[in-house]
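Request: Not sure, any thoughts?
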Amino acid sequence: MLVHLRLTVPAHLVDPVLGLLCDKPAVTNVIRLPGASLEPAGDLIQADVAREVASSILEDLSDLGLDEEGGIALVPLTATPFRRAHEVEEAAAGDPDDAVVWDVVKEQAASAVRPTVTFHLFLLIAVMLAAIAVLTDSSILVIGAMVVGPEFGTVAAICTGLVLGKGRLVVQGTKLLVLSFTFAIAVTTAVAWLGRLLGWITYEMVIRPRPQTAFIWHPDWWSFIVALLAGAAGVLALSADKGQTMVGVFISVTTVPAAGNLALGLGLTAGSEIIGSLQQLGINLAGMLIAGTITVLIQQFAWERMDKLTPAVVPAGEPSALAPTRRHRKVAAQSGAEQYLMRFRLRVRCSAVPCPATPGGRARPASPPRRTPR
């Protein structure tokens, strides 16, 4: 699996950026369009890189100062059906499905800690659904409330901030969780209190035996174990871009149902419900934070070691991103007639740009097309 890099490069960084990309064995399809960028002024450079090395290349580009003086865009590719793509993937250590692009993870984390109106509304709706599920003793409605709740992305952002030393993510994420849950519980409590005054909700409806939803305010060691497993699975799903796995994470943790039950307990002054719900909410949040942080630590350690297994530069005798490929060397061994037939099938893989992999710092330009005699 490859990802596409689109770089806006100022003139004084063109040579260092091209040198960096051309020397990487896990990079292909390097393209330079001189002067194509108008704002900011500079060249447009594009390349396809193996997902496994995308983080290290982005880090190298940042070390060159491109993140401050130019532009960097990362675009996922859905399909790369050509031979060179498979060679690039083989040159990178690890598997693309396991790869972590840390810049993407940090962008997701920064987005997850923003206190948006949408986030607060989603959590409020989820907590209200959970409260209704408690009143009706509906396990299906509990699952629906779990899926609607948006809180796990913020939990994962806090884990990322703890491991990567991003204190701002930790502070903003913690603040968002506290404020959003407080707001959702307060509004749901007010609605429950109003429903009690109107006779829609009674104290007995909350404290009666509820075989389908009693687990919400009866936490045990299994609650903590499930939270640990869900936290690890959620962080893996987000970092590896496996969004379909997140549904299982949402319906495994009991944060939103506990908040809904807590609101009912506060609104109808049911002390046992309040204590049990607080315990369940705290156990689930703690378990997810612990497991998520450990998972990010393991991923960081593993990919630091994996980067060392990937060759930093093209080995001697092997083609770089701009050098002839094995297909070109095969053509050189063919007869003149075969070369003539193959000539029209060859494509120039990159424009003539300075590259340390070619003599004199220049790639050989493409031969002009042969005129057809009249």
About this structure: Residues 105-308 form one domain. The CA atoms of residues 319 and 329 lie 10 Å apart.
